[in-house]
Design a protein that fits this description.
Strand 6, helix 6 and strand 7 form a beta-alpha-beta unit. The chain is α/β, with parallel strands linked by helices and 330 residues long. The protein folds into 2 domains: 200 residues, 3-Layer(aba) Sandwich (D-Maltodextrin-Binding Protein, domain 2); 99 residues, D-Maltodextrin-Binding Protein, domain 2 (3-Layer(aba) Sandwich). The termini are far apart. It is 46% helix and 16% strand. It has a 5-stranded mixed sheet, sandwiched between helices. A 5-stranded mixed sheet has the order 7-6-8-5-9, with helices on both faces. Helix 2 crosses helix 11, helix 11 packs across helix 16 and helix 12 crosses helix 13. The radius of gyration is 22 Å and the shape is globular. Keywords: Signal.
Amino acid sequence: MKRFFFMIVSFTLMLFILVACGGQKAEKVRLAEVTRSVFYTPLYIAISEDFFKKEGLDVELKTTWGGDKTMTALLSNGADIALVGSETSIYVNAQGASDPIINFAQLTQTDGTFLVAREKTDHFSWEQLKGKTFLGQRKGGMPQMAGEFVLKQKGIDPKKDIDLIQTIDFANIPNSFASGTGDYVQLFEPQASIFEKEGIGRIVASFGKESGRIPYTTFMAKASYLKKNEATAEKFTRAIYKAQQWIESHSSKEAALSIQDQFKDTEPSILESSIERYKQQKSFAQNPILDEKEWNQLQTIMDEAGELPKYTSHQKLVNTKIAEKVTKNH
């Protein structure tokens, strides 16, 4: 009888613990990403490997297709956090925002686009672009500015030496090239590799390799959100850092299998090769800290493209305290 009594007590206690734990509702975070790309693999790893969930966060991810639309979602409170090019925070600040957008965690540290040629070539040289039609990215966006930065380094004037097309909406650039527009196009993975496999084009160069380290894509939020939800931002950043470490210690094949649900229409082999490309050129940031040297390089590229409204200090629009705390304590 005594044994039965203790069994009942133990069972009741276990049930109470399970109910109590189950009653702790995960905190919802609305995240807007500028595009869906293998370039953001660490983010998808944080989702698929439950790093967000283990931090008590329920991250609702939506793709907003373009820097302008992503920033609109953030400014209109349609999203809590945005994953987008760091330059957007500078543009918003230049317009006199009363609630500035703060970069608090870096995800990628190089350009993520590749130069895709329509015609197959055995020996590519940048000179081959002269006189050709180049289907570029949105004016004022990091892909286009980094692209122009590289072209100038290669002795090509984007305004004189090529027929530069910038009038096509970000989401429609791949379809436009596939339908016959342009001799060259600037694309993210896995789209570049998909086109190569389908015979639509050939990857001939990497803008990421050529442009060097840049705080290309970061997680950002309104200053008021970070002030009110600092603990949430810290949990979020910790999950991202765990994902960054995970991808460093796992193979591209393992990473491809982990993020397959985010790219259900893409073959695993394409995902694997795309991830490997990014790993080889060190596109994935190894930690979420956005340092001042990278920030200044970003503004140098913006200035050379004629898109820098005014110099903005690292201290004003970058919060490194959260990322530094996460990396120090992990």
